[in-house]
Amino acid sequence: MAWRNRRWKTIIGIAAIFLGLVFAILLLMANRLVTPMLRERLHTLIIQGSDSLYRYELGNLKANFFGGNVTVENLRIDIDSSHYRRLDAAHALPSLTMELQLQRGYISGLSVFRLLFSKRIEITEIGSKEANVRLSRHVRPNNIASNAQPLWKMLQPAIRSIQVDRINLDGIKLLYANADTSESVQLQFDRCVAQFNNVRVDSAAAADTSRIVFTKNITLRFADLSYRTPDSLYNMAAEQLYYSSGDRYLELANFTLQPTLDLATFYKTMGRRMSRYEVTTNKAYFTNLRLDRFIHDNIIVADSAVVVQPDLEIYLDKTLPPEYVSKLGTYPHQRLLHAPMAIDVRTLHVKNGDLSYTERGEKTDKEGTLTFRGTNLLVNNVTNLPARIQKDPLCVAQMNTNILENSPLEAHFTFYLDSADGEWAVSGRARNVTAAQLNTVAMPLGNTELTSGKIDDIKFALRGDSYRGYGRVEMRYSNMAVILRTIDDETGALKTKKLLTKLLNKFTLYPSNPGPDGVVRHGNEVVYARPSNQSFFATIWKTMLKGMQEVMLKSGVYE
């Protein structure tokens, strides 16, 4: 009996050794078989899946049958220039093209049996920390439809489907370019962290409109964004950009737009009157943003865009020759209507922003600054889509701010999106503006000093179009008196125009409104002809100023 047990143990031991040997041989053969098959599938995915748009080089590819682990080294994917030109000429380029330099990447959880026997690629995770990626976006003209086969069909029959649970990219360098404009936008990110969850390439995923590039949920974090404008006048930077396709949320943190040249060099280079801008903002974000619509259809669709604590500084040197360029068609809503992309943002909200406009006076050679502090702006119906405009042709904005540091100003703007002549309307009110506040602008820009006076209240209701502004101005003020000055041609010192000052205060200027007789004067039926080189806000100001002159000067209109 004992010898029988020993014999069975010996047989079982020999069988185990034999089976182990067979398994080892099969494992070795599988590993040898999987590696070339993966190379073949990679070739199919890159070449056949792009209709030969790409070419590639691959260094090492190592596969481990046990556990389904694969490592890839030195993978380079480039665009075939001749095929690119052919597709570009036929307007058949995909929405996004990519160039890749991958030093090292890994694949884990590869289902080898499905790869070998059913031509299906199923992977648990793909990852890399060493890669450079260049993305270019191509916008197909609206009147040209795409006749390209979908990716899942182009891969068949070599690959029936692809399913990846997640793709993790950490520390990737990314360059994004809009390849369809002559002044191409190029955004560079020194560090990108990206996660793609539930990636599927098959007919069902292609029909799923909630997916972006076959992916159910994309999370992107970009650090250290940098961009230089095509004319090299400005640098744009941000500490971080975050996007989630699941939440349809995009956020930009600590954004700045800075001139590349200092003030003196900027205007020496320009040689003409030209506004110089500096922008910083704490945070800006979009809610319910459809990034897929932007990539494929060149349309920005969002429920809201919010800018938190922006700081905008504008400088204009009027001692330089003017820029004789027509600004007809450049009102804010006209720029919106003629934007190079479709836009449909339900609300735009600026929270607690600051704006300062500094001008170097043409006659005085001195600087005066107009400030707007604690500005809140809410704009509704920011769109240039014809269907949306047909339903609602009004873009409406409400602004509340403090002008000249602490005088409240509120304004309500209406932009008529269906107007061929850029029609607009604005109404508002400013209160409690003192002579000392006005002197910060009046003295350096107009050689005029207000020795006393206060504007208690000013109301305005104006309308206009591309060629004029008109409307009504109401203004209540008290104890207004001014001094007119001039610059001595020999010494450069300021001198008082004593005679003109006396004549102005005694015979031309009403010191108060209402006057001693209690009559309130108004600027009624004010009409201002807009010069073709004047901006939108300058047109509003000049129209208001004409109404204020009618109230303050004795040639004005009486109620």
Give the low-confidence spans. none
State mean pLDDT (0 to 100 scale).
Answer: 82
Structural class: alpha+beta
Based on Cα principal axes, name the global outline: elongated
Question: What would your notes on this structure say?
Answer:
By secondary structure, the protein is of the alpha+beta class. It has a domain at 36-228. It has helices at residues 2-48, 81-89, 112-117, 151-155, 203-206, 263-270, 291-297, 332-337, 386-391, 435-446, 498-508, 536-552, and strands at 54-64, 69-79, 96-108, 120-137, 161-178, 186-201, 215-228, 234-244, 249-259, 276-287, 299-317, 342-360, 367-383, 394-403, 407-416, 424-434, 448-464, 468-487, 494-496, 522-529. The longest helix has 47 residues, at 2-48.
Descriptive tags:
alpha+beta; 25% helix; 12 helices; 559 residues
Tell me briefly what this model is.
By secondary structure, the protein is of the alpha+beta class. It has helices at 2-48, 81-89, 112-117, 151-155, 203-206, 263-270, 291-297, 332-337, 386-391, 435-446, 498-508, 536-552; strands at 54-64, 69-79, 96-108, 120-137, 161-178, 186-201, 215-228, 234-244, 249-259, 276-287, 299-317, 342-360, 367-383, 394-403, 407-416, 424-434, 448-464, 468-487, 494-496, 522-529. The chain has a 20-stranded mixed β-sheet that branches.
